[in-house]
Amino acid sequence: MSPARHDRHSVVDCALRLLDEVGLPDLTMRRLATELDVQPSALYWHFASKQELLAAVADRILDAVPEPDPRIGPAGVAAAVRDALLAYRDGAEVVLSSYALRLGSRRAQDALRAALRDEDRSAADALFEFILGHVMLLQQRMHALSIGAVQDEAADPTPDSDAVFAAGIRGFAALSASRRPS
Question: Among 2, 4, 82, 162, which has the minimal tally of Cβ within 10 Å of its Cβ?
């Protein structure tokens, strides 16, 4: 029996599944290749590096973000970005690493810019970075709880996370609106 053939899409599917199962630190090219029943070198046929693979994973995570549409307000787009990041274990970290290296698409930032109705990319980038940081905080807390590193009630920074998130979005929207020409 010959080994299964894979394309970029199936490799990313498997990487996302492994990300949920083992987390980013244990998502290695070797482990991915084993799951796909191929040699690790076969993965490099589809992706030049692990970071390129992670950029494709980040893009897939953000596929749930709506297309840029100025009729969708900042709160709606920001919530869609947050929810997309939270849908996968270590989702924010994967997206942040790709964003930091300027790999992958700008789908989320473009949707945020349209929602803010701001031609300047910096406001959308700042809002995106706020969302990434917010979700990383939540995911770090969830991870710490899952491994017993903290007690449920131990100085938890997340109980008011929805209110903090909403306040941050309102602040970005107000700032962006104040910068628009009259």
Answer: 2
